[in-house]
Write a structure and sequence with these properties.
By secondary structure, the protein is an alpha/beta fold. 46% of the residues lie in helices and 10% in strands.
Amino acid sequence: MHSKFPPPSLADLDRSSAAAFMALARIIQVAPITLFLGAGVSESAGLPVWSELLRRICTVFFVHWEWQLNNAKRAKSLVPPRELSIAFWESFSWTPFAQQSADRFIQGSPLVAAQQIKNCVRDIDWRYLVNKSLYYGPGGIIRSPLFEALARLCAEPNAIQAVVNTNYDSLFARYLHENDVPFSVIWAAECKCRVGSLPLYHPHGYVKLDGGPVAPIVLAEEDYLLHSNQPYYWPNITQLSLLSRSTCIFLGHSLTDPNLRRLLRTSRGASGPTHFALLPRSETASLEDQMSLALFDRDLASLGVRAIRFPRRHTGGDRYSRLSELVDLLVQIRNDPNSAWS
């Protein structure tokens, strides 16, 4: 019988977060759960979060427009570019004018900004722009200990029943392959999950690193409206089903997306499963920040989500290192319930 709480492995968590983590650990010992992966998970591999992805897209677009302003006839100078060149996607070609224009452009409504640019360019250039902005940023793709830990969790027998990856990238699939986890990528209603494989859902679209299917991408205003206004659209049905019948863990999510919150609220029932969100705690000790987080976590509780607040550790430049440790701890506790106390 353990008398001291929290256990040593969770000593840097507050009591509420430690209790939520132990509750999650007990659930994963007896029933498979669902992972919901957000932008923060892919950020651990060097990819941009949504706001940075949009900023990159806008910057490349304004580089093209600036070039057109300098080279086209005056009568056409204010016509937005229609065809994009492969010459301007690398960051060394980004001018101060283009970067400043992009920053100002997305300050209002990012969704509307994305829609306005999408309206201007050809579909093939839009996909090209998203691909290059996603995978070929200034820092490049790096090895992610968080992806490694999540793949190890998926490799545990009967631990994970599904993964919902709201990011566009295909990086996690590579880590699953490295850990010999059979999986099926599902990015459309027509995609089928192979027998005995882990379903890897991409409800917001799929952009494979080395080329692949032409999947719809949820990035602009009309894309989000499609998700919100069609309750029987396959991503909504899939996510509602998982939220209603399984315990879900949210990692790398801000949990502020209106559509996700709507799905959580819709799936919330009197006897529905409890979900968990691993979220960074405030790095400041200000009373205002603590009050804000307390309000946010109380709101999550009303949606059936228990917050597990962890400290950021900038180990070797990896600010997700503590999150990786907590994922690995779930694996350890699943195999040895007493490992949390060692």
